[in-house]
TrEMBL record:
Keyword NAD attributed: yes
Keywords assigned: NAD, Oxidoreductase
The D-isomer specific 2-hydroxyacid dehydrogenase NAD-binding domain, residue ranges: 105-279
Matches recorded under InterPro entries: D-isomer_DH_NAD-bd, NAD(P)-bd_dom_sf
SUPFAM superfamilies, per database record: Formate/glycerate dehydrogenase catalytic domain-like, NAD(P)-binding Rossmann-fold domains
One Pfam family this sequence matches: 2-Hacid_dh_C
Protein name: D-isomer specific 2-hydroxyacid dehydrogenase
Oxidoreductase is among the record's keywords: yes
Organism: Acetobacter malorum DSM 14337
Amino acid sequence: MVCLVIKQGGSAALPEWKALFARLMPELEVRDWNDPTVDPAHVDYALVWKPDPGRLEKMVNLKAILSAAVGVDHITCDPTWPKNVPLIRMGGEEPVMQMEDYVLWAAFSILRDAASWRVGQQEKVWTRQDAPARTSAEMTIGVMGLGSLGAPVAMRLARAGFQVSGWARHAKTLEGVTCYAGAEGLSAFLHACDTLVCLLPETPETTGMVTYDLLAQLRKPAGLINVGRGPLVVEADLLRALNDGTLHTAVLDVFDKEPLPASSPLWAHPRVIITPHAAADASRPARAAYVASVIEALEQGKDVPLRYDPAKGY
């Protein structure tokens, strides 16, 4: 029998996981990550979120590690994780749609200056904008990162009426999206946009990429939506850009330190909208369906998408 151990949601979530997989893959043995009776050598697959350092290394017969999230840095931060074992990012339609919905909400929030309405509500002040509101057709959004999430997000924004540009390391072609690529295309991409969506993976090349100088290249009024990874943005530069008007509004879902410390000045900044890393958080049924499809494919010797490439860092 194929064995799957799960570390997501705690032991209280195991009955639900077992019920879900009983319908999807009745032949799959589902065990709790903290079950002391589990022999690590008998584990075939591990579905994990922030696994204890050193534990995966002991599962010497692992066929694949499945991330409970789209990102995998919560796994790769453990220097002992078995790099010879396929590491698969969470996928499926639900997290993609969630991310599309979130970025669309964030874009409209920036478009209509919802941050000022929020401040007005808190201060009980009837705040109206002097200038007529822009329409989506007058706003150009640039999506940095055109992978499994970035590409559908960019096309969804285009269908919603925004002018959309996209940037990736390598050339891409997307319907309704003006695409730029590589270091040589970055400046032109930034100068074409007034709102930047960061959906890049966290790699040595992208960490700290969003600096004051980068934000200063955006057209005014400039906005930032970060749904990629917190370390991609230099927080001191972000605050400087917000405080001097280089950046008009930021919608932030991810941070260098999570949960965001209460001492962070971002909490009280009037031009910042904060969400608790919730842009794409697939339900357990959706995660289970995706994991079952991946295990079934791997058991049949087939390749699967969203496999982590250590050489690329994502």
